[in-house]
Fold these 2 entries.
Entry 1:
Amino acid sequence: MYPCDLVLVNVGRNFDEERSNFIAPRKGIYSFNFHVVKVYNRQTIQVSLMHNGWPVISAFAGDQDVTREAASNGVLIQMEKGDRAYLKLERGNLMGGWKYSTFSGFLVFPM
């Protein structure tokens, strides 16, 4: 899991700040989005959105000769009450903590 160093909104307290996990409060369809920025030249980053320990989607920023490069992705996931979603940094380093890299999740449709 990649730690969040600042949580801007946590209505319902469904984001576990200690573990950097979103915990579904009820069964439903949830939307997740993330945006990440890499920091070093000639380095690839890979970030995956995990659902209960399994990768759902990933985003990559390549090894171009630039100091900053961004990657984003988003998905809808059907979750059960108590399911967890979080970001996992598979490869590379992110820039500036969560000032430049963001993660959000919310309930779209309860079931």
Entry 2:
Amino acid sequence: FEGRDRATGELRWTGTRADLIFGSNSELRALAEVYGCTDAREKFVKDFVAAWNKVMNLDRFDLD
């Protein structure tokens, strides 16, 4: 996607679909900022493992 100056027609901005999605959705943007930090690796791994475990156990009715 390209944004142009209306008066001159000069190219001012460029963006991808991902840029538009993350720019317009505040929740996705906040998550991307949290997990995108250089010191967020451990938090990402812990959160991912917890979510993966929850999803994998959702249909396990034999665990009661």
